[in-house]
Amino acid sequence: MTLGYVDSYLFDPWWPRELWLYSTVGEALAQWSHSQPPDEVAATVIGAESEPRAHELRDALERIDIPYVFHSDTWNAGRAGLARLGRADARRGRRRPGAPVSRRDERHANSE
Q1: pTM for the complete prediction?
Q2: Residue 1 is assigned to a structural domain of this protein
């Protein structure tokens, strides 16, 4: 644990085992599931990582547990997403500062 190789540990309780075992395993599984990429993405957010508005939007989506993916507008995926949305000029400074681009995932938009 000192070297950082252990994420969690279980001890052997005397009694009742279920009280300690299930809560500890449940917490470890919850931490693990939040660290995994989402199976379904409800929204894609494209913006500069340092923009306060992009951070606020990502924080709000995280707090209400909406699966999303973030692409910086300097990454290839971010530039491709902006081009798909007809916002390719956003990287050249024509976009309002602090206004990230977000869109619903195409699979969800087509199902409505």
Answers
A1: 0.53
A2: no
